[in-house]
Amino acid sequence: MENMFNSPAEVIEANICGGVKKVSLPISKMIVLGIMAGAFIALGAATSSTAAHAVSNVGLSRFVAGAIFPVGLMLITFIGGELFTGNCLTAMGAMDHRFSWSAVVRDLCIIWLSNLVGALVIVLLTYFSGNLDYSAGLLGAYSIKVALGKATITPIKGIASGILCNILVCAAILLAAAAKDISGKIWAIFFPIMAFVVGGFEHCVANMFYIPMGMLAATNPDYVAKANEAYGITADQIAQLSIAGFFTNQIPVTIGNILGGMIFVGLPCYYVHCKKEKVNN
Fold this sequence. Notes:
The structure is a single chain. This protein is mostly helical and about 280 residues long. Helix content is about 80%, strand content about 0%. It has one domain: Glycerol uptake facilitator protein, CATH 1.20.1080.10.
């Protein structure tokens, strides 16, 4: 009887073979696929914020957001895209000497920048679509609040939360590879990604949407007034929404995402399922 899913060893080998293709892509395709992935994740972030912004209970709000956000990774999986957090798993190919560590670094740098471009495109489209006007501007105020929370995160929290996030994101990618049909892949993606959103963990690419979206919302006096009314956010706090605030989040979160994907998922999976032990004669 045929197995209903791919074994862990088969999944890891397939991921390593996929990594060979990823690091060998022409730069032009890397950039386009990176932009697509950044845009898809940003769409998941934008729509999940719309769904959750007026829910006052934190747990329920995150649950609602978590039910929507996984669409981003589903779009990448079934349409195409190169996502920084998922590409951290290319480290397994370098561990297996299929390609060099410099190829991994090159791929991740190009994809990070391309994801940022795609996310910023969605930020602009979302803002000018009038989406933030929902609930008399409460969504705009909510976008400011979310961005402010991320822009003021401490480095330790950013790294730890980034690790937790990418354990779940990379697990979702490997689970999807284990499934042999599209419905199985959808459910394999849905639950781990929902879990990271519900947990409130930090994803560097999602934050490429959340923080710039809050920065742009903060240029609108109506959203700023609503943020003060609804959340007590002051002008001094809003001043922290800046390029510096963006990188205050991105640097530790990106480091955490790298550690989560490479060390907490990639290394043990490679060691257990792929690494060949030396035989003593």
